[in-house]
Design goal:
homodimer; about 425 residues; alpha/beta; Aspartate Aminotransferase, domain 1; Aspartate Aminotransferase, domain 2; 7-stranded mixed beta sheet; 4-stranded mixed beta sheet; 14 helices; globular
């Protein structure tokens, strides 16, 4: 690092802010990047640092329609000034949101229930699945992430410190790359075996819970029959099929609004979070009437903030922006362009061993001397790209997959900047 | 009911909206009141129905500083237009919020962690307590409510359908009324016995989890020694002491910002939710460094929406409004006035058998022919008061306690309207 680079990094590190944060929020909070990024503004696909630098956001799906989208901000401000209350009174926005949301989903998913986060959505989905199945055993993929609540973090082995409880089972993700895609071919069988083993050990199956992009596992889009086979195995075992669309939903994959549609299967429950309110806390659980009936017979459901009119107004604005601005088409088009550009980078840089992409969700797998070595390269790539003004992150059990998941208005020229920066970064790291 | 009353009720029932809601959100959602209330606007302590009627809000603590407080709305709108992101980057608002919040709490509580709801706060507090104690057994009160997640709903016997798992224990709340306050006198011993029994059955204690106003149990403010004795028993059993301030916090009790201060005990963990963002989804878990250390050693903590700058800006505005507008003083003053007025109503109406009140949190217990009969009277009172333009609700295992918990700017004259309406309602129901 040159002196000027070091000084630039240091000024952006805002040490006093980091220190204030560590004191007030404790050491449990981590930041991205070796030099944490202090952000002060966002607009569209751009984030601005306290140092005045502009960063291309190629990572955050939460500001799905772009940072500080005027339509979302206006809807939020107007509704916040009008009424903010809960679902024990009747209010229009949450009903309008439920109807609009259901309009984007297959007909068999008839009811939407509202939460404050993806974690709450998956947690509620588990409660519904347990009542519907009478079981409590869940099958997930080996490096899944499904939330931070007590019940969902146990199903998030991607998180440090998590031990999968004995009554759940984890199977290898449908890896389409390693061993020529052997993982994808055996996925359905693994799920069937996991449910059989669970039952043999005395736990009644409750659910198959899968992230439709296998995000934390490394981002995979296996052949349809792999996922459909797993779904069939779950149904045969009496388990409920939950599609976790917290990362893959809301048009991210370009070919459809929802990841499970890309895979072509029919979930009993769909869980939503992150992109739903463009950053404003809102999530949902969408269900079939049959699956939710046993839950409704036993329990009521109330979530103080879930379905409040202000969060609902933000979520309605997001759905409207996706539709009116053609963001699904853009995800397909800009995503396709990005894939071809990244494939070109891969041809020139042996560090890239595989690219997996749908719409604006892309995993770029890196290799080092051994596969594990890819993690060090990947970490250096992510940090160097940040230094060069492009934000991405990592995923996968070996932390060697670049995770590229930008806001949906990401353009062809944004994709070009991303690909050029990645190429330049890989070149610089060879020296 | 007279014909005109019936017609007025029907127009407010908005049957098409109810039907749309039932179709889109399913039958699991309940509404308050025999005739559900369709709300369209809020301002201060007032809510406006779709029928153009104005309702005095004497129930909602969530809009803590008043519905649609201009300062909260402005803060929210400004920050939403500037930046909304997560804690993996450095942003100022969440750090400022943590510091301000800690400034209102005792010095031993050093770190604030952020969530999206009271449920998430209690759920996270349980995870922290389990790591700190090495145990998993929790003692709660018999009719507690602590959240809707899988882990917290099990600790919410106030909810229909909930069965307390074998490894937890519930004790009678410190009832200061029934049997001349016998429950309050035996509370500490009950907690000690519950932990002893839990340990004897092979479960290591994790936490004592108490709502500082015993809200769902019926609202009790027992003598300090009752709660301190329970806290001492928990500590002796190796359990972590969690003060659930989701309902009692943020100045509600008038004498202090936090309910545990009113009781005079020293919690290891404090959980926050409902009033924190005046309706915008935000919650927090405040901890001592010692208690959170084992959690931090094992896990990281990240909550996508928890601590986002927009929710943080709303929460900062709430803390500022409480301080600058003297809302703690108002809670004490208007609450004291309300208590004396309600006591006068009680002298004239035998249906009221006990009033329990601190600041702007009041339980008015009603009796019928037998105690259980109070539920029917209470339900009629709540519905009739709504019809007369004042919103309250019910609590307690017998559903015979009027729950009065208005926004903090509730004035002396608002208290007069409430008391007059209650008196008129009780008179009308005698005929």
């Amino acid at each position: 690092m040159s002196k000027s680079e070091l000084s630039q990094s240091s000024s952006n590190a805002a040490p006093s802010l980091i220190e204030r944060r560590r004191r007030a929020m404790g050491p449990v909070y981590a930041t991205f990047y070796d030099v944490p990024l202090h952000l002060v503004r966002g607009k569209g696909v751009w984030l601005e640092g306290a140092d005045g630098r502009r960063y291309l956001d190629a990572y955050n799906n939460v500001p799905s329609v772009g940072h500080c989208h005027p339509r979302v901000v206006a809807a939020l401000a107007a509704q916040a000034g009008r009424l903010n209350t809960h679902t024990r009174y009747l209010t229009e926005p949450v009903i309008e949101l439920a109807e609009k949301l259901l309009g984007t989903l297959p007909d068999h998913l008839e009811h939407a229930m509202f939460t404050c986060s993806g974690s709450e959505s998956n947690d509620l989905a588990l409660r519904i699945a347990m009542e519907a199945s009478g079981g409590r055993g869940v099958v997930i993929t080996r490096f899944a992430y499904h939330g931070n609540s007590l019940a969902t973090v146990e199903l998030s082995p991607a998180e440090r410190g998590v031990r999968l409880p004995d009554h759940h089972r984890a199977v290898d993700a449908p890896d389409t790359f390693t061993n020529a895609g052997q993982g994808a071919r055996t996925f359905a069988r693994s799920v069937a075996e996991a449910f059989a083993d669970m039952a043999a050990q005395g736990t009644r199956p409750a659910a198959l819970l899968i992230d439709s992009a296998f995000s934390s596992d490394g981002i995979y889009f296996p052949p349809r029959e792999a996922v459909q086979g797993a779904v069939d195995a779950a149904r045969a075992a009496g388990a409920v099929v939950i599609a976790d669309e917290v990362q893959s939903g809301f048009g991210r994959l370009g070919d459809a609004m929802w990841g499970f549609e890309v895979h072509g299967f029919r979930p009993d429950i769909v869980t939503l979070g992150k992109p739903m309110g463009a950053g404003h806390p809102v999530g949902a659980v969408v269900v079939t009437p049959e699956i939710v009936a046993p839950f409704t017979a036993r329990f009521g459901y109330f979530n103080t903030f879930g379905g409040n009119p202000v969060s609902a107004a933000a979520a309605i604005a997001v759905l409207d922006a996706i539709a009116d601005e053609g963001l699904l088409d853009n995800a397909r088009d800009a995503g396709g362009h990005m894939l071809s550009l990244l494939s070109e980078v891969a041809r020139q840089h042996a560090a890239i061993v595989n690219i997996r992409s749908r719409g604006l969700y892309t995993g770029v797998e890196l290799a080092g001397d051994e596969r594990r070595g890819g993690a060090d390269v990947a970490r250096r790539v992510v940090n160097e790209m940040c230094r060069r003004g492009v934000l991405i992150s990592l995923c996968g059990p070996n932390a060697n997959v670049l995770k590229i998941r930008p806001p949906l208005p990401f353009s062809r020229s944004n994709a070009e900047q991303l690909a050029q920066t990645l190429a330049a970064t890989l070149s610089s790291l060879q020296h």
